[in-house]
Design brief:
By secondary structure, the protein is mostly helical. The protein has a single domain, classed as Four Helix Bundle (Hemerythrin (Met), subunit A). The chain contains nine helices and no strands.
Length: 221
């Protein structure tokens, strides 16, 4: 998972530069897209599907680790990291529906966070076209949601769907809570749509001119 040094600045503080991906951490990030494409084809083979999912998780960990160690942290890497994770997990989930008889409605809970965040897409199209978009890093609730989703997918792949069944409503509720935080943060970036007005800075008092000390009266005579 990559981070960017511009995360705390405005949404247009850094441009997406594809050249920043020509390094080891960038290649690891991009490798999750072909993995997402291949997963539905290997999903019928349980061992291969488990191995590919583990490999995806390793690339997700090491791309950020290597980027920080080698000073290769980039804005585009942080943005693509989140989107490629979503693509992979959606492909993995519907593959489980097809080949492992997983109830399709589970996906509504598993991706409640992404469904709510979908309202941002019309606003992000213009930013992506301009090469400007701000990566939103996961909150603690968002990270917990992702870990529980991984546990649910593993439980289905290992043939223990009862664990996924118990986790599914929890994932849905946590996903909604995480999405609410992301959505509030997104709305604060839109002019005129800030649900919580930001405190205005207090005007600084102007410095007063320093008074000159009174001179002693002149002596007479």
């Amino acid at each position: 998972m990559q981070r960017t040094p511009h995360a705390d600045r405005g949404p247009e503080s850094a441009r997406l530069s594809p050249r920043d991906l020509w390094n080891l951490s960038g290649v690891l990030t991009l490798s999750r897209f072909p993995m997402a494409v291949v997963f539905p084809f290997v999903a019928p083979h349980r061992e291969a599907a488990i191995g590919l999912y583990v490999l995806m998780g390793l690339t997700d960990f090491f791309d950020g680790y290597i980027a920080r160690k080698r000073g290769q942290v980039s804005h585009i890497g942080a943005v693509l990291d989140g989107w490629l994770d979503k693509i992979f997990h959606v492909n993995a989930a519907w593959s489980l529906v097809i080949y492992y008889d997983m109830p399709g409605w589970w996906m509504l809970c598993w991706f409640s966070r992404e469904i709510v965040q979908g309202v941002q897409i019309p606003f992000l199209v213009g930013r992506f076209a301009q090469g400007r978009v701000r990566p939103h890093h996961a909150t603690p609730i968002g990270k917990l949601t992702t870990w529980l989703l991984a546990a649910a997918i593993f439980s289905v792949l290992f043939g223990v769907p009862i664990v996924a069944q118990a986790l599914t409503p929890v994932i849905g509720l946590l996903g909604l809570a995480a999405a609410g935080g992301y959505l509030r943060r997104f709305l604060r970036e839109l002019p005129g749509l800030d649900p919580q007005p930001r405190p205005q800075p207090r005007p600084q008092p102007r410095p007063q001119p320093r008074a000159h000390p009174l001179e002693p009266p002149a002596r007479m005579g």
